[in-house]
Design brief:
The complex is a heterotrimer of chains A (about 260), B (about 280) and C (about 375). Chain B is mainly alpha-helical. In chain B, about 75% of the residues lie in helices and about 0% in strands. Chain B is built from 14 helices and two strands. Classes of the chains: A mainly alpha (about 260), B mainly alpha (about 280), C alpha+beta (about 375).
């Protein structure tokens, strides 16, 4: 679309945008720079790859934390995706008694500050006498992932008219055949983005995990937290760069993957 | 919408969230009216002590401080996000511009906070730079105050405001701006009198998405704030893990929950219920 | 009625306070092209959805080939629907959309190929089998929807305003095609539309509906020429509608006294009693317009005098609004045929005479 001339001349917003992008990227660039710093302290002393070497050869705690994060992220995302997708299908097309209630309880967790969810789950688990550990972290992650999957799938479902479902039933499909042959294939992009969002959120979560975790259930963000809190090792810089690269690569492949699905 | 197997589809979600989200919230409500137990936990009798404690001036200071920081950070966030959203909506390269905003956001939350420590710390990048330029002899203490907390909060939640503003402005009919110009408005007047009133819903959504998480912030003030920039979130954690006063922690949580819920309800009423029907972009 | 293909007996349906169907009864014969015609909200789509199984009636019976289908789910009824918005599955190709019903029944691949290509041929889409619905034009999507609905060889095909999303020219074309498909496969079509032209041009019979009630069932000619109620008269085509009081009955010939035109004569085989207040209608194309009053005085012919208030020229015809001596306005449509032996052109403000035969005047029932 051709923009009218007076907008082109309006450069205030462009300037703000450019400065903002620099503001957003600058800290990450500093991290990249420092990850190659030879010295242990903050000041720059020279180029070195020692922290990367240490990250990959001598950081077993960190990799254990990464393993925990991966387990929790994949399992919680999977469960949240299955439950959330079914919920979205129900809410989008059918009227039932608890529909309004479900809409509210899928909305609330997204607007409540994370700490509230963390604290209430901690209190809940200890009240029930459930031992804190990977399982409680998993439960907490499903709980905060579920609403996101629900909404992403719902957004996708909203693009389709109910007549698609009626057409399927009309042509002879049972409810289950309709779910399997029409609803799921149609919703797949929404389901996939729900799943990937859930994985990302789960890998990312610190606050809620912090409250519901127990001995032996340190996730990567918790590991990073204690590293920041109790003496920063420049390994964290190297780790940050690897994670940044990881997210960029993941995001890139996710985009292509989603595009492929959408094109199908 | 039809009658049909809706409840069957929805029941796993209903059960999970009722059990692991609603029930814990209700327990918080219950605990806030009980007496602290010997080693954490709660005991009878029922009491309002926890709520009396919140009204206590030492807590009151934290409440006021939290609101002040949250308002300031939200204000700056919106101030930056509005022109950004406008520029992105008007650009022909929207996907690229969106990606540039989102990519830093994909970096782990703690890593982003840590990056600011690496910049603002006593031996951080900024002090390094100042020393190298000969502008400072001693390290300047940038961290561990309210300004640092506000800065990092703005950094963390900026995309929360940019994305909804972008999607609202993107739907705005820009020929209205031309019409306003045609009728004699200056650029500034056209934006203020025509654009802003039409994107009110987006501004409120952005406000909501920024203010609420900042109001309940925990990690940022913990890591870049000092004891004087403590926020309500830190108070809850301290009461829970250090002072072991669970009723008080519950009461503060409940206050945050109520403030959030009331805020959202006001906005929903004001904005119509479209927020509930809208997609939420977080990651 | 036993023996009819589709039997709808005393069906009623409400949504909350809204009465969607009010005691509707229709019998449809095997192979009929039957239209449900009415304005939006008249209940025609609800009736269709009840036949398909998407809605349940509050009361009444629906029989297909003498079998009660109300307990059956949509997928168990030998009825298929062409949806208003096509409802094609966007994730499947044209071929797979049409093959969908066969795949459900786990048919053998060669059989599926053969059947699908037969039906794609029927709708002339054999060259588009591998396209996605999003790559098709509106008319092509429509044809896929028809092929898909027919492949199960249903006993009845339901069409829910299938042409409403198409532009006027394409609509004409698709209508002809629908008609020829109907002729080829010979099953019952139930066609829902709000467009009277569509209904008149393809239907064997039409049920005109309004406010949940069936006002008239009949052939297109019956409905157009002899509307049963004033609503039908106004809804189908253009008409002139007035009131009058029956003054004289002479066999089938009646004389009405009207406030606007004096005495009007008409024929009716079942005349109401003298003194009854009635509504009567005459179609604008049945009126003859001329400068002279040559036909004046002949029995069985009504003649009025008036002035041209507004001539509206539209190529093949001109529509005149004639202000008659009594102050009422009469619509007249005059076809432009080159063999016409009319005198000078009729223009604005001309004094003219209108004449129309008693046989073209109909009494209608006053209902909503």
């Amino acid at each position: 679309m051709k923009k009218p001339d007076f907008i082109k001349a309006f450069s205030f917003s462009r300037t703000v945008y450019a400065v903002t992008i620099m503001f957003l990227f600058m800290p990450l660039l500093v991290l990249v720079l420092y990850s190659f710093n030879e010295s242990r302290s903050g000041s720059w002393t020279g180029f070195s790859l020692r922290w990367y070497v240490k990250l990959f050869t001598d950081s077993s705690d960190l990799w254990r934390a990464f393993g925990n994060s991966a387990i929790v992220a994949l399992s919680s995302a999977l469960v949240a995706t299955v439950i959330g997708t079914l919920g979205a299908v129900g809410v989008n097309w059918y009227r039932f008694r608890l529909r309004g209630y479900l809409r509210t309880i899928t909305f609330l967790p997204m607007i409540l500050p994370e700490i509230i969810i963390g604290v209430s789950l901690l209190v809940f688990f200890s009240g029930l006498g459930i031992r804190l550990g990977l399982f409680t972290v998993f439960v907490a992650h499903v709980s905060f992932n579920l609403p996101f999957v629900f909404l992403l799938v719902l957004a996708r479902l909203e693009e389709f008219d109910f007549s698609i479902i009626e057409a399927s039933r009309d042509l002879g499909a049972t409810e289950l055949q309709t779910l399997w042959r029409v609803i799921l294939p149609l919703t797949m992009p929404g389901i996939m983005s729900g799943f990937l969002t859930a994985v990302t959120l789960s890998l990312e979560d610190f606050v809620i995990t912090f409250f519901v975790t127990g001995p032996g259930a340190t996730t990567l963000p918790l590991y990073v937290y204690s590293a920041i809190r109790f003496g920063v090792s420049p390994v964290i810089n190297a780790l940050s760069v690897v994670m940044i690269l990881g997210t960029v690569v993941l995001a890139w492949s996710m985009r292509r993957f989603l595009k492929n699905i959408a094109a199908k | 919408m039809r009658r049909g197997p809706g409840l069957a589809y929805a029941s796993p979600s209903l059960l999970w969230l009722t059990f692991f989200f609603i029930a814990p919230l209700l327990i918080i409500v219950l605990y806030s009216f009980l007496t602290p137990g010997q080693r954490g936990g709660v005991d009878l009798p029922f009491t309002l002590n926890a709520y009396r404690a919140i009204a206590n001036p030492s807590f009151g200071k934290v409440v006021v401080g939290t609101i002040a920081v949250a308002l300031a950070a939200t204000f700056f966030t919106l101030l930056i996000a509005l022109p950004c959203g406008y520029y992105m909506a008007r650009s022909s390269k929207q996907t690229l511009l969106l990606l540039l905003v989102i990519i830093p956001f994909w970096t782990n939350f703690l890593i982003r906070i840590y990056a600011w420590i690496a910049i603002l710390g006593n031996e951080g990048f900024l002090n390094d730079l100042l020393r190298w330029l000969g502008l400072a002899e001693e390290s300047v203490r940038f961290l561990y105050n309210r300004a640092a907390v506000t800065l990092v909060l703005v950094y963390t939640y900026l995309p929360y405001a940019i994305l909804p503003l972008f999607s609202t402005i993107d739907k705005f009919d820009f020929s209205l701006l031309e019409a306003a110009r045609d009728l004699g408005a200056t650029k500034f007047m056209a934006i203020r009198k025509v654009l802003l009133p039409n994107i009110r819903a987006g501004i409120f959504t952005a406000f909501l998405f920024t203010f609420i998480p900042i109001f309940g912030a925990y990690a940022v003030p913990l890591l870049v704030g000092g004891t004087n920039s403590y926020m309500l979130g830190n108070l809850i954690a301290d009461e829970l893990t250090k002072s072991r006063n669970w009723p008080l922690a519950s009461a503060i949580s409940l206050v945050i929950t109520l403030v959030t819920t009331i805020g959202v309800m006001l906005l929903l009423r004001f904005n119509g219920t479209h927020i509930l029907e809208k997609k939420h972009e977080k990651a | 009625m036993i023996g009819s293909n589709v039997h709808i007996g005393n069906v009623s349906k409400t949504f909350g306070d809204f009465v969607a169907l009010d005691d509707v009864s229709i019998q449809i014969q095997k192979g009929e092209f039957f239209s449900l015609l009415g304005p939006s909200g008249c209940g025609k789509t609800t009736l269709l959805r009840i036949i398909a199984g998407f809605e349940e009636p509050a009361s009444g019976a629906v029989l297909l080939d003498d079998r009660d289908v109300l307990p059956l789910l949509p997928n168990q009824r030998s009825v298929n629907t062409v949806f208003q918005n096509y409802a094609l599955f966007p994730h499947l190709s044209v071929f797979e959309n049409v093959a969908f019903p066969l795949r459900l029944h786990k048919q053998k691949e060669p059989l599926i190929r053969a059947r699908v290509s037969d039906y794609l041929q029927l709708v002339e889409l054999q060259d588009h089998a591998n396209k996605k619905p999003s790559q098709l034009s509106g008319g092509q999507k429509q044809r896929v929807a028809i092929a898909r609905a027919l492949i199960n060889e249903p006993s009845v095909l339901l069409l829910d305003e299938p042409l409403s999303a198409l532009d006027a020219k394409l609509r004409q074309h698709m209508l002809i095609e629908l008609d020829s498909i109907h002729d080829k496969i010979g099953i019952t079509f139930i066609y829902v539309t709000h467009d009277q032209q569509e209904a008149l041009s393809v239907s064997d019979r039409i049920a005109v509906m309004n406010k949940g009630m069936v006002l008239q069932i009949g052939t297109p000619q019956e409905i157009y020429e002899a509307p049963a109620t004033d609503f039908v008269a106004k809804f189908i085509g253009e008409t002139n509608l007035f009131e009058g009081i029956v003054r004289k009955i002479d066999g089938e010939l009646l004389e009405l006294e009207t406030a606007e035109f004096g005495t009007i004569c008409l024929t009716d085989s079942t005349p109401p009693a003298i003194g009854t207040r009635v509504s009567w209608t005459v179609r604008p194309e049945k009126l003859r317009i001329s400068h002279d009053s040559a036909a004046n005085g002949r029995s069985g012919l009504n003649t009025l005098q008036g002035r041209v208030d507004e001539p509206i020229y539209s190529g093949f015809q001109t529509k005149f609004y004639i202000k008659t001596a009594g102050g009422a306005t009469m619509k007249v449509i005059k076809q432009h045929a080159d063999w016409s032996d009319e005198g000078p052109e009729i223009a604005w403000k001309d004094e003219v005479y209108l004449s129309f035969s008693a046989k073209d005047v109909f009494l209608v029932e006053r209902k909503q």
